[in-house]
């Protein structure tokens, strides 16, 4: 089995092979159920009200995920953070933390790697497994439900660990980044893709507040993400400090998405107003990302990019 074996997320002791209805830790006695073939590595005490709300929100969101939505993710700013992992020698092991139905892990599996994908939301994980099946990479992927702060793996298990567009949803961010480092081999990658920049939260999003509240009142959704409502994004110096504190060596901090974000946001906003699931057209997104790559050279514009990609490594020492 090329995938690193599961460990108890509570005490890191070895677990029996995942082919029964329950996984019982012989060390700490914690039991984890397997639902529809997916291990649920969440001890009840890990789930505070914040995490429960995020879980319900992302389960609800995952039901709206479409194959077209997955294809639209194949854009240059995603490719930038995925490329180091796609370039690893075939058969390398990669962990996608809080993957939802975004399917970056699927594209990495298509490049020949063995990918484990986890998320806190059980329905999102089931949906992601179906997307992997549809993409023909089910045999190179493995799925489980787990909490980013308690990863069910031994130290130094993976060649690379990444999170995309989800890190700002974690309540204890340093703990989550330290966990990602713990399960990654020395010299391996710890990567962040498309996490929000700070400046829109004090400007654009403040101005758009009334529109957001208007959309919420019309929308039939049981849960909203507390994290999306309370995050203030990240500045470059905050990212440096966070990765330093986690003991990671940062290689690249790249601002990403300028026009592409305007386009994606407009499509999503129109979808919300029309109460339809509009998906950005991949070819438009692709062309705009080429313009973004040119705009990147203008110093002022670089300060106004919407997101960050971060490539870091676990020190070899
Ligand atoms: Zn245990």
Précis, in short:
The protein has 14 helices and 10 strands.
Task: Give the tags.
single chain, 317 residues, alpha/beta, Rossmann fold, 10 strands, binds zinc ion
What this model shows, in words?
The chain is of the alpha/beta class and 317 residues long. The chain has a single domain, classed as Rossmann fold. It has 14 helices and 10 strands. Strands 1-2-3-6-5-4-7-8-10-9 form a 10-stranded mixed β-sheet, with helices on both faces. It is globular, with a radius of gyration of 19 Å. The chain starts with 21 loop residues before the first strand and ends with a strand. The protein binds zinc ion. Zinc ion (ZN) binds next to loops.
Ligands, ions, cofactors: zinc ion
Share of residues in strands: 15-25%
Structural class: alpha/beta
The main pleated sheet reads as: 10 strands, mixed
Q: How many domains make up the 3D coordinates?
A: 1
Return the CATH class: Alpha Beta
Radius of gyration: 19 Å
Strands of the widest sheet, in order across it, are 1-2-3-6-5-4-7-8-10-9
Distance between the termini: 28 Å
> Would you identify the CATH architecture?
3-Layer(aba) Sandwich
Low-confidence stretches: none
Which term fits the overall shape?
A: globular
Give helix and strand order, one letter per element, not per position: EEEHHHEHEHEEHEHHHHHEHHHE
Q: What is the number of helical segments per DSSP (H or I, 4+ residues)?
A: 14
Q: How many strands?
A: 10
Q: Helicity range of the residues?
A: 40-55%
């Amino acid at each position: 089995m090329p995938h690193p074996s599961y460990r108890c997320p509570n005490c890191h002791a070895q677990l029996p092979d995942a082919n029964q209805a329950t996984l019982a830790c012989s060390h700490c006695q914690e039991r984890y159920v397997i639902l529809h073939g997916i291990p649920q590595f969440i001890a009840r005490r890990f789930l505070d009200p914040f995490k429960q709300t995020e879980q319900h929100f992302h389960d609800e969101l995952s039901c709206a995920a479409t194959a077209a939505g997955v294809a639209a993710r194949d854009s240059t700013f995603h490719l930038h953070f995925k490329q180091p992992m796609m370039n690893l020698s075939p058969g390398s092991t990669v962990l996608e933390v809080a993957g939802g139905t975004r399917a970056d892990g699927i594209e990495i599996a298509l490049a020949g790697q063995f990918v484990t994908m986890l998320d806190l939301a059980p329905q999102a994980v089931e949906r992601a497994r179906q997307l992997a099946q549809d993409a023909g990479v089910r045999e190179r992927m493995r799925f489980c439900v787990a909490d980013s702060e308690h990863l069910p793996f031994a130290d130094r298990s993976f060649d690379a660990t990444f999170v995309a567009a989800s890190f700002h949803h974690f309540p204890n961010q340093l703990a989550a980044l330290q966990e990602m480092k713990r399960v990654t081999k020395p010299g391996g990658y710890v990567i962040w893709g498309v996490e929000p920049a700070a400046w829109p939260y004090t400007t654009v999003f403040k101005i758009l507040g009334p529109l957001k509240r208007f959309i919420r009142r019309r929308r039939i959704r049981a849960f909203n993400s507390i994290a999306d409502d309370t995050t203030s994004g990240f500045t470059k110096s905050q990212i440096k400090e966070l990765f330093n504190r986690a003991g990671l060596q940062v290689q690249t901090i790249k601002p990403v998405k300028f026009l592409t974000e305007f386009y994606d946001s407009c499509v999503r906003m129109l979808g919300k107003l029309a109460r339809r699931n509009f998906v950005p057209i991949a070819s438009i997104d692709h062309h705009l990302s080429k313009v973004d790559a040119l705009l990147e050279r203008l110093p002022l514009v670089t300060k106004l990019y919407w997101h960050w990609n971060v490539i870091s490594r676990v020190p070899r020492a």
